[in-house]
Structures are given as C-alpha cells and as structure tokens.
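Hi Y.,

Following your request, here is the sequence exactly as I used it, all 417 residues.
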Amino acid sequence: MNQLSPGPNHSSNHPQALNLPRAQLAPGDATRIAIEGIRARPLRAALAGLGIALGVTALVAVVGLSESSKAQINQELDALGTNLLTATAGNSFGGGQAQLPQDAVAMVERIGPVQQAAGVGNINASIYRNDKVDPIKSGGIGVNAATRSLKDTVGLVIADGQWLSAITEQFPTTVLGSTAADRLGITAELIRSTNPTQVWLGNHWFTVIGLLEPSDLTPELDSSALVSWPAAEKYLSFDGHPTTIYETSSDTSVDAVRNVLAATVSPSAPDEVQVSRPSDALAAKAATDAAFTGLLLGLGAIALLVGGLGVANTMVVSVLERRQEIGLRRALGATRRHIRNQFLGEAVTLSVLGGIAGAVLGILVTAIIATFNGWPISLPIWAISAGLGVTVLVGIVAGIFPASRGAKLPPTAALSI
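Below is the corresponding structure, written out as tokens. Let me know if you'd prefer a different format.
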C-alpha cells in the first residue's frame, strides 16, 4: 500500500505539470524581433520603405510649399494693401469705347473716405530708342499721361532717377516702367550718367528722368512710358480724358467707396465704368494655389497607397520565406498571436521608418524651394503629424493579411518544408 501511495514530491509536482505558464512576449521583445526581421533583409526593406517615404515626402512638401506660398501672398497683401480701387472706361451703350470726364479725378477726390486719387490717360503715341527705328515696331510699350499723385496713390517705387514733379512736368520728360526700360535698353547706369538719356516719343525727344520698380498691384504700368499731364497736353495732343483712375481709402471704407465710385466718376453713365480691386488678383492666385494643392495632395495619397502595397507585398514574401522560422517558434511555444504581432510589428516599423525618412525629406524640400523663391518657410506641425499618423495606419493595413497568414501556419506544416 505504501508503495502505491503517492509520495510527497509527486503530489506537489503534478499540479505544476498540468498548469504550464503561458508564453509571454513583452512589447520590447516584440519590437526588437520586428527590427531584427527588417535588418535581416535591408535591401528589400529599403525598397519597400522607399514607397512610403516618397508618399510622405509628397504630402509634407505639398502642404509646406502651399502654406509658404500663401504666407508670401499674405505678406504681399499686407505690404501692398487691399484698399486700392481702379475705375476704368468700359464700353459705351453703342458698343464703342467709353470716355471718362476730364474732371473725374477731382470728383473722386471729393468722396469723403478717399485718401488719394490719381489718373492715367492713354495717348496715341509710340516710343522708340531713337528716331531711326521702323515706326511699325512699337515694342508693345504704351504711352500714358499720369498725374503727379500716381506714385503715392499706387505705391510706385523709383528704382533710379526721380518721379514727375512740378518742375519737370512742364518739359518733355518721361518715367519708364521696368518692362518698358528693358525693352528700350535703358539701364540705371544711363540714368545716373551726366549725359541725359533721351527717347523718341510721339515724334518728340523726351528725356528719361526715372525708372520704376516692378509693381505687383498695377502690372499694366510696368510696360508703360509715363508722361506728365501738362507735357502730354502740350507735346502729344492729349485730350485730358483719363482712362483709368486709381484711388485709396481706409480698409474699412473700401466697400462703401466701391459702391459709389462708378456713379462719381461718370454720373451720366455709371454703367460705362468698370470698378475693380487689384488685390483681388492676388487673392485669386491664392485660391488657385489652394485648388492645385488639393490635386497634389491626391497624387501624394496615391503614392502613399502604392507604398503601402509595396510593404504588403514585402511582408507576404517574407512570410513565405520564413515558414521554417515560424514553425520553429511555434514548436518552442509561440502562439499564433505572437506570430501575428511579430509580422504586424515588422510592417508597422517598416512604414514608420519610411514615414520618418519621408517627413525629413519633405521638410528639406520645402525649405530649399521656399528659400530659392524667397518665400517664408511655413510648415504646419499637423502636416508632419498627419503624415506620420497615416504611415502607422498604412503599416497596420498592409501587415494584417501577411501577419494573419503567418499566424495560421501550423508548426508541423512549417517544419516539414
């Protein structure tokens, strides 16, 4: 009886033999296994991560460049102002070119909120470098009479020389826009020289006294030769009718002035006056850039999708190649959950590493292009965070199928290969 009764050691060890501890895989160990799996195949991992990196680079760079461009436009609008309005002569009731009254500028100045007003009138004349040039070749340069207040009203900047003054406006003098000066071959050195630089304008010699910087709000003046109002009437038979009137008012009064500007310029025919705000063109450019940014973001998303497919393909091939490893780990106690987490971790790690590389590259691309174009560098943190967050999601989606496939392999089938 004593030989058949269980001994003390046997009775105490039997429960332990029936309650084996479950296999555990700490998060740190799972991460190390995932990294080792990637390091074992560096070239394949690099190629798979490259697709993710390119997608994130596109997303980050597109958002960064778009924001930098918008910041530049906003700076220009802040510097130039949005309170400039123009009134131009449109078409008359009969379909011909309308004509603004000669006293239109003075009438606009009587509007209460108006701070400054100026006028420009087209002149039927051509300008050449000398009197030997074929008259047929106009060079696309317009000749306009301008009031002295035009410079301050529009915000023109003198590059070299001087603006029209009370003294010079009595003589045949002209100020050239930047494009007009380039086409005539007149440089700052010529203006600074002691010998006066003259051009053949309307069959008269005019002295060039100044050159203008390019104007963002009034690009039409860049290709113009501006002559004072009295000189235009005296030498070029100008009739005194302005074709464009510029006015500035306070920012809060722009809409109110806009509503009465046409009727003030031409009380008898306000419908023949076209009123516009030059800064709206810059705002429209910003809106166009926003639409173009949406298109580029779509292309970046497609690139990211392609990168995710590359990660999924890499992981599927990895599962097929590592069936013996899977079988051995299963035989040593690894559960299906461990195998699934291993390959899912590899896919996520691969995507995250590609995402980090792409984010860094996107930041560099944004900084380089923005600096080259003279834009302020503006890169929202949410763009980088969103790019990295999307890579995690892509890694999870791309790794679910191969991870599940690897977890379903039975130990005997894997080891029999």
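Residues 1-18 have pLDDT under 50 and may be disordered.

Thanks again,
Q.
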